[in-house]
Amino acid sequence: MTMTTTTLDNKAKPRGKYPHLKRVGDLIFVSGVSSRNPDGSFRGAAVDKMGNTELDIAEQTKAVLDNINDILGSEGASLEDVIDLTTYLVNMNDFKGYNQAYARYFDENGPTRTTVAVHQLPHPLILIEIKVIAYKPIN
């Protein structure tokens, strides 16, 4: 069985020694993804000159899913190929906004899903991180 790892130049660099994705045969495993842009900024997060922070769970959710779709695209796959999804939320009070944004991408026929609360994620502006497994046969 063929196994490859990929780190993409056009996505935010991983904050450790791990790839954006690993393909094992027809399965694609995507590492946890946030709303971080390649330039280090975060979609759905703003800090004004006074240090006041505004975080938007819906916008971060959309950014994460868009990032995942781009990463999958490097293997000829898309969100339609996702079979399992795990979401990490810093605050379960954000579940409603996350769920509403998620519903723009998936319906009840989408991937299996698990959502868990975590104490924190690798940056204080990150409200959400998602990892997925996709199935895309190698042609």
SSE blueprint and pairings:
Layout: E1 3-6, E2 21-24, E3 27-33, E4 45-47, E5 53-55, H1 57-73, E6 82-89, H2 95-102, E7 112-117, E8 128-135
Parallel strand pairs: 6-7
Antiparallel strand pairs: 1-2, 2-3, 3-8, 4-5, 6-8
Helix pairs in contact: 1-2
Structure description:
The protein is α+β, with helices and mostly antiparallel strands. Helix content is 18%, strand content 31%. It has two helices and eight strands, in the order E-E-E-E-E-H-E-H-E-E. Strands 1-2-3-8-6-7 form a six-stranded mixed β-sheet, covered by helices on one side. Strands 4-5 form a two-stranded antiparallel sheet. The longest helix is centred in the middle third of the chain and has 17 residues. It is globular.
H/E element order? EEEEEHEHEE
Shape: globular
Instruction: Give the low-confidence spans.
Output: none
Average of pLDDT: 96
Strand order, largest beta sheet: 1-2-3-8-6-7
Report the radius of gyration as a whole number of Å.
15 Å
Strand content: 25-35%
